[in-house]
């Protein structure tokens, strides 16, 4: 599409997460989280840690200035649970809340709408030691944490997202062990973690709504249309199973209050009477993280007998993910058709590339510019077709600690030199700034 014009009230901005950018892991009373433990065990591929990361904890005014200069009017950030509650429960760390006070006030002063995410993977280690997302004991502590943070910030922060990508947490953290806390518990471990996140989310949503009637409440899910590698019956069935695990457990949980029928038997051992009613709750906003479709095939030896198929794609990111912008349109059209057209914010969309500065010291990231342009065109097409998309937040503002890949993968529209912490806006920053300021592509 060319000459795409977005609605006047459309939100433009970027997303980050606390663990990936803040650093200062030992500062001002913050407690340990599962990713601290995972890194200490030597499980980060490049041997790095998030001890400094982007040092956003100390450099947040500079980062807000970058957003303001870009013309952004929204910013999704996450609260670090162990910064607020060092053991996950009990005594509140006032200095942790003070940091988010400063950040929120700085955003508002810059004319940027703060959108807070309560859980972006930094689970306090003491809660993991008690079972983490494998048990129901975590449900109450999460709802209590949500209430504590909202009590401090809800007078200024009106947009609240409960979880970020519960499917990624469950599958990679508890199923196959590639993310913290690093458990390899297979199918049941994945489904338990998904279900208990859904239950905790439902309780937190109810707690915040009861205390603050004026908030816009929601959550963030990584949604990826699942396609079969071939027309073979076993591949089609495998893709449907993976769609149920990856997309439908979190999506149908909050929007429909139900367990996907394909997984009902596997989940029967830990889904109790009343759980389906507890996981469903009317939300005001749905954050969508989109990176690509998933092309799946039948293959034994993997959870649910599903494995990656051939995406038949010509463009790939540095994460070896296919570039499929039309999949974002398909996803938004499906939400309109099948889920009563909820208010959607693209909460993450972006790409990792190597991003080596040129002789002029600038980062000419043409591949990322093309990625953003093509995905924004898909969003514009969806808006034109009546999809209820309210904003687009790119991933990410800054290069940062990319979880198990450490500092080796760069997603930012601003380059971070990890030795000096100098921020250098890339060509993608300038491109996206033009779109944000003009409201057109």
Show the helix and strand layout:
Elements: E1 11-15, H1 18-21, H2 34-40, H3 56-70, E2 74-78, H4 81-84, H5 94-109, E3 113-119, H6 125-129, H7 139-153, E4 159-164, H8 166-175, H9 186-211, E5 216-222, E6 226-228, H10 233-256, H11 264-267, H12 275-279, E7 285-289, E8 294-298, E9 306-308, H13 325-338, E10 344-348, H14 366-384, E11 389-395, E12 414-416, E13 423-425, H15 427-438
Parallel strand pairs: 1-2, 1-11, 2-3, 3-4, 4-5, 5-7, 6-8, 7-10, 10-11
Antiparallel strand pairs: 8-9, 12-13
Helix pairs in contact: 3-5, 7-9, 8-9, 8-10, 9-10, 13-14, 14-15
Q: What's the rounded overall pLDDT mean?
A: 98
Helix and strand pattern: EHHHEHHEHHEHHEEHHHEEEHEHEEEH
β-strand number: 13
Strand content: 5-15%
Based on the structure given, which CATH architecture is correct? Alpha-Beta Barrel
Question: Radius of gyration, rounded?
Answer: 20 Å
Number of domains: 1
What's the CATH H-level superfamily name? Glycosidases
Please estimate the helix content: 40-55%
Number of DSSP helical runs: 15
End-to-end distance, in Å? 8 Å
CATH top level class name? Alpha Beta
> How would the global form be characterised?
globular
Query: Spatial order of the strands in the main sheet?
Result: 1-2-3-4-5-7-10-11
Summarize the biggest pleated sheet: 8 strands, parallel, barrel
CATH topology: TIM Barrel
């Amino acid at each position: 599409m060319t000459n795409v014009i977005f609605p006047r009230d459309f939100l433009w901005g970027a997303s980050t997460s606390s663990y990936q950018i803040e650093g200062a892991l030992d500062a001002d009373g913050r407690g340990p989280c599962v990713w601290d433990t995972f890194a200490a065990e030597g499980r980060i591929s490049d041997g790095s840690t998030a001890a400094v990361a982007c040092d956003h904890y100390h450099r947040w005014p500079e980062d807000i200035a970058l957003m303001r200069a870009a013309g952004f009017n929204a910013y999704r950030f996450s609260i670090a649970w162990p910064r607020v509650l060092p053991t996950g429960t009990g005594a509140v760390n006032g200095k942790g809340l003070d940091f988010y006070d400063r950040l929120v006030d700085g955003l508002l002063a810059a004319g940027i709408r703060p959108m807070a995410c309560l859980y972006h993977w930094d689970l306090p280690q003491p809660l993991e030691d008690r079972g983490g997302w494998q048990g129901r004991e975590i449900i109450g502590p999460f709802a209590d944490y949500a209430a504590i943070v909202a009590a401090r910030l809800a007078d200024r922060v009106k947009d609240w997202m409960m979880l970020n990508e519960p499917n990624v947490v469950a599958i990679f953290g508890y199923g196959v062990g590639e993310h913290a806390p690093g458990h390899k518990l297979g199918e049941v471990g994945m489904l338990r973690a998904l279900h208990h996140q859904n239950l905790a989310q439902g309780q937190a949503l109810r707690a915040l709504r009861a205390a603050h009637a004026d908030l816009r409440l929601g959550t963030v899910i990584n949604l990826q249309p699942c396609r079969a590698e071939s027309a073979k019956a076993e591949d089609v069935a495998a893709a449907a199973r993976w769609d149920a695990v990856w997309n439908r457990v979190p999506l149908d949980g909050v929007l429909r209050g139900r367990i996907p029928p394909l997984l009902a038997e596997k989940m029967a051992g830990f889904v109790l009477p009343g759980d389906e009613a507890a996981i469903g709750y009317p939300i005001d906003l749905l954050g969508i993280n989109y990176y690509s479709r998933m092309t799946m095939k039948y293959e034994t030896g993997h959870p649910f007998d599903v494995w990656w198929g051939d995406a038949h794609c010509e463009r790939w990111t540095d994460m070896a993910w296919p570039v499929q912008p039309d999949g974002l349109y398909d996803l938004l059209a499906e939400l309109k058709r099948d889920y009563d057209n909820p208010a959607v914010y693209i909460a993450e969309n972006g790409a990792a590339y190597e991003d080596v500065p040129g002789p002029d010291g600038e980062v000419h990231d043409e591949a990322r510019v093309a990625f953003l342009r093509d995905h924004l065109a898909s969003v514009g097409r969806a808006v034109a077709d009546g999809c209820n998309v309210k904003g687009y937040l790119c991933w990410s503002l800054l290069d940062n600690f990319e979880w198990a890949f450490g500092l080796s993968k760069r997603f930012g529209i601003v380059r971070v030199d990890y030795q000096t912490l100098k921020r250098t806006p890339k060509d993608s920053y300038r491109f996206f700034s033009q779109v944000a300021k003009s409201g057109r592509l």
